[in-house]
Amino acid sequence: MANNTGYQDIEDCEATNKALYKFYAAVMIVIFILALPLNASVLHLFIFKLKFWKSNTNNIFLFNLVLADILLIFCLPIKAYNYIDGERRSDKDAICKAMLFMLFLNRGASIAFLTVTSIDRYFNVVHPGRKNLLRALKKSPHISILIWLLLLPLTIPTMLKTFECCNSHSQLPNGTKEDTLVKDVVDSMREVVFFSQIIIPFVILVYCTVHIVNRLRKKTVGDTTKLRRAVFLVTSVMVVFSFCFLPCTVARMVLLIARVKPWPEDWQDKAAVAFDGLMVLSYVDCLLDPLIYCFCSTKFKSIYLSSYFPFLVKGNGVPLDSSTGNTTQPSRNNVI
C-alpha cells in the first residue's frame, strides 16, 4: 500500500500546524480562566443561596447544567497542554480514552439539561393545563440522576478497543480484515453517539422554539411577560446551541467523509485541523450557559448581582427587573 506512510503520518497525534494549535490552546486557557470562576459562583449560588434541592422548579435542572459545565471545564487544561506540546490528542491511550469519556459524558449532560429545560418551558407555555410526565418528575431530583445514568451507556464506545490517537475510521496500514471490521463497528458506534447527542436535541429545540413563538403571536390579551421570557429562553438556547455545537458537527461530518473516501492527505489534515478548532469553539458553551440562567428569570439575575456585584445594585439593594422596569425582591422560592 503506497499511501500507508502518508496515512500513518495523518493519524499520528502530532499536530502539523503547531502555531495554530498553540493558538487553540490559548483560546482554551482563556475560556478556562473565565468560565471556572463564573460557573463556580453560579454553583455556589445554587447550593448556598437558592438551596436547589428544596425547589420544585427548574433550579434542579440548571444546577445539573452548571455541574456538567464545570466538569467539562476541568478537561480544558489537559487538552491545552496537548496542543501546546504539539499533539492533537494525548498519545497515551488511557488519557485519550479518559478525556473522550469526560467530553462525551459532560457535553451530553450539558445538552440534555438544556433540552429538558426548554421542553419544560414548552409545556408550561404551550400546554399550561396539561399533565405531563416531565412536570411530575421534575418535582424530584431523581429525574436528574436518571438523565446522568442514561448518558453513561453512550460513553461505552469511547472505552472499547484501542484506537490510534482517538481517531475514527482511520486507515490501518497493517491491519487484518477482522481488525478493520471491529474497528469500523466501534468507530461507527462512537460517531452515532456524537451526532445523536447534537442532532436529536437540536430538532427538539427547533420544535419547542417554533411552538412557543407561535403561542406568543396568538396571545392577544392578558399578561404576555411569561411568554416573552419563555421566548427569550428558548431563543437563547437555540443561539448558544447553534453557535457552539452545529459548526463542529458539520466539520466532523466533512472529516469523516474525507477519511472514508479517502480524500488526499493534505485535505484530510486540513479537515482535522478545522474540526479541532471548531471543537474549541464548542467549549464557549461553558461561558454562555450562565446567560441562559438569567433568561430563565430576572430574579436569578437579581440574587446573583446582589450576592457578587452589590455595587451594581440600585439604592435599596434590589436590582432592577429588566423585563418590567420595576424592582424585584429576590425570593428563594420558585426562583427559576
TrEMBL record:
InterPro entries, per database record: GPCR_Rhodpsn (IPR000276), GPCR_Rhodpsn_7TM (IPR017452), HCARs (IPR051893)
Record's protein name: G protein-coupled receptor 31
Gene Ontology MF terms: G protein-coupled receptor activity
Domain G-protein coupled receptors family 1 profile: 38-293
TM spans (from-to): 23-48, 60-80, 100-123, 143-160, 192-210, 231-258, 278-296
UniProt xrefs under PANTHER family: 12-(S)-HYDROXY-5,8,10,14-EICOSATETRAENOIC ACID RECEPTOR, HYDROXYCARBOXYLIC ACID RECEPTOR 2
Intracellular or extracellular location(s): Membrane
Main location: membrane
Gene name as annotated: gpr31
A Pfam short name: 7tm_1
Protein family membership: Belongs to the G-protein coupled receptor 1 family.
Gene Ontology CC annotations of this record: membrane
Organism per entry: Cyclopterus lumpus (Lumpsucker)
The entry's keywords: G-protein coupled receptor, Membrane, Receptor, Transducer, Transmembrane, Transmembrane helix
The keyword Membrane appears for this protein: yes
PROSITE patterns: G_PROTEIN_RECEP_F1_1 (PS00237), G_PROTEIN_RECEP_F1_2 (PS50262)
Protein's membrane topology: Multi-pass membrane protein
